[in-house]
């Protein structure tokens, strides 16, 4: 279960041969919210550092076995990003220079000004966190990003930065965005870069499971819980023990199930249907929705307390039409991918085709773009994809002069396009959902919303 805490207490290694000084510094920094460990010798400090590591260090220059500067060199050979403060009653310019070269953030004389020391330590830890985030972001950017995620736009770069910061924690994450924007991809990216990466990632689409079955799907059931329940069934929350559960389309959860999810988030346990013994699991919860969850809270359709539990970290993925920098790059990646897959010698898009890609609003987002490019690759007879193979509806989405009465809401445009695709598919909802890049249940929800069912 997510604890909701975004970070652990920062830790400080305090090394001083004077007991009173160690105790003074330990008590002061513990009151400031830090975790401390005190050592009286350099050897003891090095041993404990090798075992557990620390976020920063406060080191006395003169120690019984070897001096603080040598200790700092050794500690930084273990952790090059360690920042430290060297304290001494023997301050000299040369010692200070050596200390700074060895990685000390500052060289301070005893008796030390605790308020000033606290500011220096805070600065050291902030710098360390930034370094760690940048390293993780680099790892995410170079190794684990799926082909469907492109981060040329400022919005996606910021999202990856948030992923780098939140992935190592157990905080709950709520991902919002239109259908097809890649919410599950971001959820998987968080899981893959977390301490739970070697455990299971369990996705469950709350909109795709009938209301009568969602509870048993999540929590499992015992024999005799209902007609046909002959043996124990393990639920998704239990399957995800030690890992991450991804609750997609969380806005479709019935209120009764919302209450049970809330209880699980509060104490980490639940009951199988028909069960009398609580089941305890350690699961990180990431959820997603394409609905306006805040409005649902206001309308009483979604529990406010659950919303705040799920929304410790919020990531909003903008639609493709709002991040043009990603659009053509993503289209070109898909073109290469599908040209290889289908054995087609296609080199790229014509300028006119690229222009259409940029003008079209892509209501189905990444899924629609992916399907469109694959279809274009299959149907193309030339080396370059022509504009005729790229959608041009919605008036090409070009800026123009309109009377206000001519303008349409996005919902009206989406409704018209869904009708057009359904007509093209002769009413086949599964085929229409595939072209639109939507799950069939999501399409059915939209058909109901627009009065088309």
Name of the CATH class of the largest domain: Alpha Beta
The tally of beta strands, per DSSP, is 16
Total of DSSP H or I helical runs spanning 4+ residues: 18
Helix proportion of residues, in percent?
Answer: 40-55%
Overall radius of gyration: 28 Å
What are the low-pLDDT stretches, counting only 5+ consecutive residues below 50? 1-7, 394-402
Oligomer status: single chain
CATH fold description of the largest domain: Rossmann fold
Architecture per CATH nomenclature, i.e. the level-2 architecture of the largest domain: 3-Layer(aba) Sandwich
Main sheet characteristics: 5 strands, parallel
Going by CATH, the homologous superfamily of the largest domain would be: P-loop containing nucleotide triphosphate hydrolases
Q: Could you explain how this protein is built, in words?
A:
Residues 1-7 and 394-402 have low confidence and may be disordered. The chain folds into 3 domains: 11-133, Response regulator (Rossmann fold, 3-Layer(aba) Sandwich), CATH 3.40.50.2300; 152-316, 3-Layer(aba) Sandwich (Rossmann fold), CATH 3.40.50; 321-449, Helicase, Ruva Protein, domain 3, CATH 1.10.8.60. 47% of the residues lie in helices and 14% in strands. The strands form 5 sheets. The chain has a 5-stranded parallel beta sheet, sandwiched between helices. Helix 2 (42-52) runs parallel beside helix 3 (68-78) and helix 5 (114-144) crosses helix 6 (154-166). It is an alpha/beta fold and 453 residues long. The chain has helices at 19-31, 42-52, 68-78, 93-101, 114-144, 154-166, 183-192, 211-219, 236-239, 255-267, 293-298, 304-310, 324-342, 351-359, 365-379, 410-424, 429-436, 440-449, and strands at residues 11-15, 35-39, 56-60, 83-88, 104-109, 173-176, 201-205, 220-221, 233-234, 244-248, 269-270, 279-280, 284-289, 313-316, 348-349, 384-385. The two termini are 39 Å apart. It is globular, with a radius of gyration of 28 Å.
């Amino acid at each position: 279960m997510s604890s909701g805490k975004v970070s652990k207490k920062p830790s400080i290694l305090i090394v001083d041969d004077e007991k009173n000084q160690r105790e003074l510094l330990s008590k002061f920094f513990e009151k400031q919210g830090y975790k401390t460990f005190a050592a009286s010798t350099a050897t003891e400090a090095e041993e404990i550092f090798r075992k557990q590591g620390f976020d920063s260090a406060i080191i006395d220059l003169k120690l019984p076995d070897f001096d603080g500067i040598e200790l700092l060199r050794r500690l930084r050979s273990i952790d090059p990003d360690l920042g430290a403060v060297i304290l001494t009653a023997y301050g000299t310019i040369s010692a200070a220079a050596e200390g700074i070269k060895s990685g000390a953030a500052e060289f301070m004389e005893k008796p030390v000004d605790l308020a000033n020391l606290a500011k220096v330590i805070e600065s050291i830890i902030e710098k360390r966190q930034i370094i760690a985030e940048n390293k993780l972001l680099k790892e995410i950017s170079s190794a684990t990003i799926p082909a469907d995620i492109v981060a040329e736009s400022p919005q996606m770069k910021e999202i990856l930065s948030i992923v780098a910061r939140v992935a190592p924690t157990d905080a709950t994450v709520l991902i919002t965005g239109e259908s097809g924007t890649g919410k599950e991809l971001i959820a998987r990216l968080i899981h893959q870069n977390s301490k739970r990466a070697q455990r299971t990632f369990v996705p469950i689409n709350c909109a795709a499971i009938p209301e009568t079955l969602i509870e048993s799907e999540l929590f499992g059931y015992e024999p005799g819980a209902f007609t046909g329940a002959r043996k124990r069934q393990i639920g998704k929350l239990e399957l995800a023990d030690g890992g991450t559960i991804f609750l997609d389309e969380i806005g479709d959860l019935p209120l009764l199930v919302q209450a049970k999810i809330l209880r699980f988030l509060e104490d980490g346990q639940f009951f199988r249907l028909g069960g009398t013994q609580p089941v305890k699991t350690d699961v990180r919860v990431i959820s997603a929705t394409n609905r306006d969850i805040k409005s649902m809270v206001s309308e009483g359709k979604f529990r406010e307390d659950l919303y705040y539990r799920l929304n410790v970290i919020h990531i909003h993925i903008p639609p493709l039409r709002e991040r043009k920098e990603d659009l053509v790059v993503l289209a070109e990646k898909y073109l290469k991918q599908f040209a290889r897959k289908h054995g087609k010698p296609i080199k790229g898009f014509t300028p006119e085709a690229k222009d259409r890609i940029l003008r079209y609003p892509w209501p189905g987002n990444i899924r629609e773009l992916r399907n469109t490019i694959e279809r274009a690759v299959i149907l193309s007879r030339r080396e370059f994809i022509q504009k005729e193979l790229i959608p041009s509806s919605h008036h090409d989405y070009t800026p123009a002069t309109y009377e206000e009465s001519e303008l349409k809401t996005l919902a009206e445009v989406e409704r018209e396009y869904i009708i057009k695709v359904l007509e093209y598919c002769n009413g086949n909802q599964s085929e229409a959902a595939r072209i639109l890049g939507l799950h069939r249940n999501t399409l059915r929800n939209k058909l109901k919303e627009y009065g088309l069912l």
